[in-house]
């Protein structure tokens, strides 16, 4: 089975991403991936636009502040459950929080 190195979605949106495999080699990922930095920046902006703080988010999600900061820096991503809960708190959708690429 041939797996393309580029995925072109309706509207011409294209995903092409390199990741390191277990042997340390760069490989192209043929599926959409989350841009952690842009997603973190997007989430941070949504939080600030609603006059919320990191403390508010950490209390609501039941996680420590450092985990929220990691997401906002683009070093990590929230679990799917926490992304969903945060989307409800911010009155937005998970899709609007995530940046692909």
H/E order of the elements? EEEEHHHHH
Q: Give the DSSP E fraction (strand runs of 2 or more residues).
A: 5-15%
Strand numbers in spatial order across the main sheet? 1-2
Q: What is the CATH H-level superfamily of the largest domain?
A: lambda repressor-like DNA-binding domains
**CATH class of the largest domain, please?**
Mainly Alpha
Number of strands: 4
Distance between the termini: 24 Å
Q: Name the structural class.
A: alpha+beta
CATH topology of the largest domain: 434 Repressor (Amino-terminal Domain)
Describe the structure in brief:
Helix content is 45%, strand content 12%. The chain has 101 residues and is α+β, with helices and mostly antiparallel strands. It has 2 domains: 1-33, no CATH class; 36-97, Orthogonal Bundle (434 Repressor (Amino-terminal Domain)).
Outline the structure in words.
The chain folds into two domains: 1-33, no CATH class; 36-97, lambda repressor-like DNA-binding domains (434 Repressor (Amino-terminal Domain)). Helix 1 crosses helix 3. The chain is of the alpha+beta class. The chain has helices at residues 36-49, 54-61, 65-73, 80-89, 94-97, and strands at 7-8, 14-15, 17-20, 26-29.
């Amino acid at each position: 089975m041939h797996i393309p190195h580029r995925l072109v979605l309706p509207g011409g949106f294209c995903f092409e991403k390199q990741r390191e495999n277990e042997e340390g080699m760069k490989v192209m990922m043929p599926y959409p991936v989350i841009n952690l930095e842009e997603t973190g920046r997007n989430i941070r902006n949504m939080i600030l636009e609603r006059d919320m703080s990191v403390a508010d988010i950490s209390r609501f999600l039941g996680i420590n502040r450092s985990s929220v900061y990691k997401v906002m820096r683009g070093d990590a991503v929230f679990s799917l459950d926490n992304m969903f809960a945060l989307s409800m708190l911010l009155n937005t959708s998970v899709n609007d929080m995530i940046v692909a690429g």
